[in-house]
Design brief:
The protein contains five helices and five strands. The chain has helices at about 5, 20-30, 40-50, 70-80, 115-125; strands at about 10-15, 35-40, 55-60, 85-90, 105-110. Strand 3, helix 4 (about 70-80) and strand 4 (about 85-90) form a beta-alpha-beta unit. Residues about 1-5 have low confidence and may be disordered.
Length: about 120
Amino acid sequence: MNAPFSSPAAVVLLVEDEPLVRMLGTDVLEDAGYRVVEAIDAAQALVQLDAHPEVAVLFTDVQMPGELDGVQLARIVHHRRPDVRLVVASGRTRLSAGDLPDHGRFVPKPYRPDELIEVMRDVLS
């Protein structure tokens, strides 16, 4: 791995339609030293991905408005940018290892801030 992926300054694309959950995730990640790019749905996330080639991690909710859910978004991101690590969260759906491409990680909601940081460190190491 090259340095940006192991650095806490890595860029995380956070996709969450619930404003309070998005703000909490952003605060937790930024407090841990990550840079965060936000999106409210998959369509906006794909625009942000194209606009920010430095994105190292996609962190997305499964359920969100629009045509694509978080699992479909993860598959598209993996196809377009196989270098981007995948983290998918949900409070309603449980995913197994085979549901996400490239060893993507599933995080059940609600997650604790320390759990989120640990997952980010794991996927970037």
